[in-house]
């Protein structure tokens, strides 16, 4: 093991993750899993599995996107789920409070529009404040977002006394549960968000600055990049993605609560790292993340149909991550040796 | 030597412990005036016992933080160790010493597994421990089916009182096992970190890992020590928790991660490593404890507490970082210019 | 003396880092109790050589012997147990520990439960500092010390332990002449006690008086070892660079040119005071001074990284109010940092992204997007113009040699079309060929009318490239010299005085 602890190992590991085509291993893993479950679980490759896949993925997918942007800059946003839940609660509260039972459909749609705008504004506000705290105080993002998470969750729980709020009006819930050509709208929402985020991260000054900050924030600052503004943007973007996740919550649960999806927080980090996002920052692609999410979802669907508990699913998710990182580390150390021989 | 004295004062002013103590005194004064029953011996002793488990685990987390790492998996470790020990005690009927050693061994093993992932495989500590947490906790829930163990043997659940006295008011004050263990753990951790070689090396490693390697510190062993120590303390905390409530509930410790981490950070432990003291971490726990207890006594909804924790973390960490950033300008000019 | 076993002997030691051959077949020996100089340019491999002997990097091939016995495999603890102490160039101190804890770090090592005595640590530290005749607050955190005191702390740590051989890697970089003299007196005493000392330096003059032999390293290979008496400065310089450098002076009289950057009584509390000078169009102005003389702090203020606290900066007659380095870049000022690895380039990221970093806004089309083609085009153009040798635009900068990395930094800044280019020690860790290349780029820029400020601690470099040289000490400009009017040696005397 002495060689692994040599410093070159870590550098190479990071270097290899940055290579295009680094997803090949993940795609192979995905294919192998599909094959495995197809053989083991009769009826695995069916329309039903695909449907449940498309309905279950968006929530975790959007939350993972919200986590990837800060991760790329070497940070972390532990408040994504708190943000999403508070946004959903606010929207449901507005719709519940201001839609009279006998309101006209125009009035209902008007209130829904107001609720959506209010939810979006809330997310933007949370993002700007979080980003400003990270950028201007220099406190580690883990601590800042731990604080904001606690604060946001606290406010949500305090105001709702821990109860769920239900009452998403029919037009909105019908829209959120609609399908286009057999593809659920919320899945299209995820795809759209992923493509948009992918373009922003790869092809805008903001996205390039994010990766640069993740690798070396000081050198980036010395290159006349306003790193503070970029960081505020990063956490705002992360929060706005939580707004989309809040929509998925409304569609899926028809209600909002302060403790929906809390167990997803750490899973989003697992998904990101599995998808090749460097936890030190600087490297990561949306496409890699999407493949990783597909892998996690296939494992979950497969085990589910196999009749195994969801607890085992989470354990296997964690195991998959460690196995993939081990494989990458060994590959980074061994590949150059084979090549030399 | 006025300059020497002022620099010593400046050093003190930068210590988070001092500020924390100040805040605690202020908050404590406010509560003792406004909340009846706050500043009474029974209430304080009760608080001590309630927070003893968190304090014990926080001591272990503090060591990991000083070494420059972080561990999210300690609550899962505590649950797994507690449940394993409970199984051995209730189902296998093994005697106390065997059960306790087995529980601590499970904790140490899980801690060392974290250390192995971090040291040999170079996985960032937060990712490694999140993964380990997912795995161990999920497996625990899977195999236990979420069922609690209620029939713990008497030696485990019987309250151990070291000192007992009755106050004039008729209240009974007991110094119980969790409090004594907490005090012992704090003392041992303090001695290890300030008076023993291993502690100084962990501080050095947290401050500059490459330099620590160059002067000949064994980074691998230190990593194993830090995470293993936290594992042992998490297991100890887990077993004490079962002792207090009289049963072993698989998910009883879940969601204490962030509270313990908050306490350690409040007390001056830095996520960048190399900083923090045992008294500081204890003061962090004290602050969180009196905030929760005081608000409770004041009749403020317990839901409000989380908001207070959030604000406390944000304010205290910001102040610490900003105040330590000030005055870092290195003097180059020999003499201070006459007019600024 | 001839048949005496050397204390340390290296047999064809080589070291590779990934694709880079850092050391090639080094055979070398250090005798007991001798003072030996190991010289070479920055980045020639001498620091790697020391780290190999200190057990920090295991050699790829070859053998290391102490008193005739092979000691491989070597780790830092074993190297120290064998009596090898190193004062590292980056000091390798612990910023979160006190001066006493740093100096007496040996007290903290050893078995896990070994008790620690603060009093003993302070005693050890006090004794060493007394031997060195320095006074530093033993309870101060190293993070709070100025550079020179940190350097002394590092030296004290090296001397505190029992040693048979002490390596000092550039120990004098931030010390004044008087402090260096005190250090040399200690070295003489160590030698009398039979302890060997190896000085590592890219300069020779300061230690030449007490050294017995000198070894020259170039591009990872040993050039040779000579008794000090047989070589002089000039010959050493030639051996180090592999070139017969004639230090021709290129100074031109630029006083007739248009003023470009006028700095008037610029001050920043605690860093520098009353700095005034005028840089003219097409002029190359040198600023020389020791590490910690305020030269870099001055540059950072001119680049807008730190606010000035008095005085004025005028560019082409217009007063500048620099709130950030973005203001400086927009005004036409660029700055190549002295710390290339952590402030110059973003090492793990691609060459093209590093080059376009400062001009990304200019490359965007509608919707704020940057087409990949534009990025590549701009980066490729600068790679060609500066003759950067690269394996591919999308490869990480860390795969390049120091010289080519520095060219990437230059490309980044030249892409902003600066009027004033500040180069802070631009040739540190750059091999001789790339060094010459960078000087050529500087000369070319000056011909195009760019004003260049070259900050350096190498008088030879400043004299060979600048039209005028300002001397900086303790935060002030203390002199101005036209190269050629005084000798390099006289200038060095002034700087280290």
From TrEMBL, chain A:
The keyword Cell membrane applies. It is found in: Cell membrane. Its main location: membrane. One of its GO terms (cellular component) is plasma membrane. The chain crosses the membrane at residues 20-41, 53-72, 107-136, 178-201, 230-254, 260-277, 289-308, 314-334. It comes from the Bacteria. InterPro entries: ABC_transp_permease. It is a multi-pass membrane protein. Keywords: Cell inner membrane, Cell membrane, Membrane, Sugar transport, Transmembrane, Transmembrane helix, Transport. GO terms for molecular function: transmembrane transporter activity. This is Simple sugar transport system permease protein. It comes from Amaricoccus macauensis.
UniProtKB/TrEMBL annotation, chain B:
It is a multi-pass membrane protein. The chain crosses the membrane at residues 18-39, 51-67, 98-118, 125-145, 175-198, 219-240, 252-271, 278-297, 303-322. Pfam families: BPD_transp_2. Keywords: Cell inner membrane, Cell membrane, Membrane, Sugar transport, Transmembrane, Transmembrane helix, Transport. GO terms for molecular function: transmembrane transporter activity. It comes from the Bacteria. The keyword Lipid biosynthesis does not apply. It is found in: Cell membrane. GO terms for cellular component: plasma membrane. PANTHER family: ABC TRANSPORTER PERMEASE PROTEIN YPHD-RELATED, ABC TRANSPORTER PERMEASE PROTEIN YPHD-RELATED-RELATED. This is Simple sugar transport system permease protein. It comes from Amaricoccus macauensis.
From TrEMBL, chain C:
It comes from the Bacteria. Coiled coil: none annotated. SUPFAM superfamilies: P-loop containing nucleoside triphosphate hydrolases. GO terms for molecular function: ATP binding; ATP hydrolysis activity. Residues 8-244, 249-497 form the ABC transporter domain. Keywords: ATP-binding, Cell membrane, Membrane, Nucleotide-binding, Repeat, Sugar transport, Translocase, Transport. This is Simple sugar transport system ATP-binding protein. The lineage of its organism: Bacteria, Pseudomonadati, Pseudomonadota, Alphaproteobacteria, Rhodobacterales.
């Amino acid at each position: 093991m002495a060689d692994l602890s040599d410093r070159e190992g870590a550098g190479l590991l990071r270097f290899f993750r940055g290579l295009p085509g680094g997803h090949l291993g993940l795609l192979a893993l995905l294919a192998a899993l599909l094959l495995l479950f197809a053989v083991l679980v009769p009826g695995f490759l069916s329309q039903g599995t695909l449907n449940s896949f498309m309905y279950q993925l968006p929530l975790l997918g959007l939350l993972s996107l919200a986590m990837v942007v800060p991760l790329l800059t070497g940070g972390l946003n532990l408040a994504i789920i708190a943000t999403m839940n508070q946004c959903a609660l606010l929207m449901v509260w507005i719709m519940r409070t201001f839609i009279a039972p006998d309101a006209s459909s125009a009035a209902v749609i008007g209130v829904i529009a107001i609720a959506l705008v209010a939810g979006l504004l809330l997310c933007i506000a949370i993002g700007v404040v979080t980003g400003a705290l990270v950028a201007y105080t220099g406190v580690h993002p883990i601590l800042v977002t731990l604080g904001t998470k606690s604060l946001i969750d606290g406010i949500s729980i305090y105001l709702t006394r821990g109860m769920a709020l239900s009452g998403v009006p029919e037009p909105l819930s019908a829209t959120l549960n609609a399908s286009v050509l057999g593809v659920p709208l919320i899945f299209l929402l995820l795809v759209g968000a992923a493509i948009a985020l992918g373009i922003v991260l790869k092809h805008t000054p903001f996205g390039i600055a994010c990766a640069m900050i993740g690798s070396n924030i000081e050198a980036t600052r010395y290159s006349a990049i306003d790193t503070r503004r970029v960081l505020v943007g990063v956490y705002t973007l992360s929060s706005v993605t939580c707004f989309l996740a809040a929509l998925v919550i409304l569609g899926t649960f028809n209600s909002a609560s302060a403790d929906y999806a809390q167990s997803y927080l750490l899973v989003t980090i697992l998904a990101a790292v599995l998808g090749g996002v460097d936890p030190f920052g600087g490297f990561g692609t949306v496409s890699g993340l999407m493949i990783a999410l597909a892998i996690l979802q296939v494992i979950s669907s497969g085990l589910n149909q196999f009749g195994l508990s969801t607890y085992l699913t989470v354990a296997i998710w964690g195991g998959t991550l460690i196995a993939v990182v081990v494989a990458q580390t060994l590959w980074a150390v061994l590949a150059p040796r084979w090549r030399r021989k | 030597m006025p300059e020497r004295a002022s620099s010593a004062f400046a050093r003190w002013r930068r210590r988070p412990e001092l500020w924390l103590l100040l805040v605690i005194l202020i908050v404590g004064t406010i509560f003792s005036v406004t909340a009846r029953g706050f500043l009474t011996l029974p209430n304080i002793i009760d608080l001590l016992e309630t927070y003893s488990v968190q304090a014990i685990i926080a001591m272990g987390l503090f060591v990991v933080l000083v070494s420059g790492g972080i561990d999210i998996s300690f609550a899962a470790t505590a649950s797994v160790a507690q449940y394993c020990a409970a199984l051995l005690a209730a189902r296998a009927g093994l005697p106390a010493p065997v059960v306790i050693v087995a529980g601590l061994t499970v904790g140490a093993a899980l801690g060392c597994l974290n250390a192995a992932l971090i040291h040999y495989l170079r996985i960032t500590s937060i990712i490694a421990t999140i993964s380990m947490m997912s795995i161990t906790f999920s497996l625990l829930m899977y195999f236990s089916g979420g069922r609690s163990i209620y029939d713990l043997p008497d030696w485990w659940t019987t309250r151990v009182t070291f000192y007992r006295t009755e106050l004039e008011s008729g209240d009974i004050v007991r110094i119980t096992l969790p409090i004594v263990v907490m005090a012992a753990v704090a003392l041992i951790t303090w001695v290890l970190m300030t008076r023993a070689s291993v502690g100084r090396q962990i501080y050095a490693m947290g401050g500059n890992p490459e330099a620590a390697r160059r002067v000949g510190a064994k980074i691998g062993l230190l990593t194993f020590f830090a995470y293993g120590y936290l594992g042992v303390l998490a297991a100890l905390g887990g077993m004490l928790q079962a002792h207090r409530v009289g049963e072993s509930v698989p998910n009883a410790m879940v969601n204490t991660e962030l509270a313990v981490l908050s306490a350690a950070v409040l007390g001056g432990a830095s996520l960048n490593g190399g900083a923090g003291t045992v008294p500081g971490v204890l003061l962090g726990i004290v602050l969180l404890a009196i905030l929760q207890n005081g608000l409770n006594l004041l009749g403020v909804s317990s839901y409000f507490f989380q908001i207070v924790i959030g604000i406390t973390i944000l304010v205290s960490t910001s102040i610490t970082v900003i105040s330590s950033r000030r005055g870092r300008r290195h003097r180059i000019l020999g003499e201070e210019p006459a007019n600024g | 003396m001839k048949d005496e076993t050397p204390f340390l002997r290296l047999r064809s030691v080589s070291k590779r880092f990934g694709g880079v051959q850092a050391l090639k077949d080094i055979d070398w020996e250090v005798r007991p109790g001798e003072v030996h100089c190991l010289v070479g340019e920055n980045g020639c491999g001498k620091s790697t050589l020391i780290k190999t002997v200190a057990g920090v990097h295991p050699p790829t091939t070859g053998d290391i012997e102490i008193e005739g016995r092979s000691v491989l495999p070597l780790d830092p603890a074993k190297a120290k147990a064998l009596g090898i102490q190193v004062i590292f160039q980056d000091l390798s101190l612990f910023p979160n520990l006190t001066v006493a804890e740093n100096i007496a770090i040996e007290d903290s090592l050893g078995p896990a439960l070994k008790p620690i005595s603060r009093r003993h640590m302070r005693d050890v530290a006090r004794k060493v500092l007394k031997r060195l005749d320095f006074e530093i607050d033993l309870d101060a955190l190293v993070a709070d010390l100025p550079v020179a005191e940190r350097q002394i702390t590092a030296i004290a740590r090296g001397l505190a332990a029992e040693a048979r051989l002490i390596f000092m890697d550039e120990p004098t970089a931030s010390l004044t002449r008087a402090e260096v003299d005190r250090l040399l007196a200690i070295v003489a005493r160590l030698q009398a006690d039979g302890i060997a000392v190896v000085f590592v330096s890219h300069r020779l003059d300061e230690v030449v008086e007490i050294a017995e032999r000198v070894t020259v390293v170039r591009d990872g290979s040993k050039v040779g070892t000579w008794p000090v008496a047989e070589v002089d400065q000039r010959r050493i310089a030639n051996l180090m660079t592999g070139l017969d450098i004639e230090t021709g002076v290129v100074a031109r009289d630029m006083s007739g040119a248009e003023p470009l950057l006028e700095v008037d009584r610029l001050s920043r509390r605690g860093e520098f005071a009353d700095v005034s000078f005028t840089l003219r169009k097409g002029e190359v102005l040198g600023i020389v001074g020791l590490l910690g003389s305020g030269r870099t702090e001055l540059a950072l203020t001119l680049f807008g990284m730190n606010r000035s606290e008095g005085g004025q900066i005028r560019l082409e007659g217009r007063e500048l109010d620099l709130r950030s380095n973005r203001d400086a870049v927009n005004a036409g000022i660029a700055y190549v940092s002295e710390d290339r690895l952590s402030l110059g380039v973003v090492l793990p990221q691609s060459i093209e992204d590093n080059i376009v970093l400062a001009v990304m806004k200019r490359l965007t089309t509608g919707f704020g997007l940057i087409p990949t083609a534009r990025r590549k085009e701009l980066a490729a153009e600068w790679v060609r113009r500066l003759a950067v040798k690269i394996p591919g635009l999308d490869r990480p900068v860390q795969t390049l040699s120091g010289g080519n990395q520095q060219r990437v930094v230059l490309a980044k800044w030249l892409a902003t079309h600066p009027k004033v280019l500040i180069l802070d020690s631009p040739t540190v860790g750059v091999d001789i060929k790339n060094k010459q290349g960078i000087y050529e780029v500087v000369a070319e820029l000056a011909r195009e009318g760019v004003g260049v400020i070259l900050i350096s601690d190498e008088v030879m470099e400043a004299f060979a490239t600048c039209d005028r040289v300002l001397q900086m000490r303790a935060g002030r400009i203390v002199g101005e010299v036209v190269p050629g009017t005084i000798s390099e040696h006289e200038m060095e005397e002034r700087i280290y005085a």
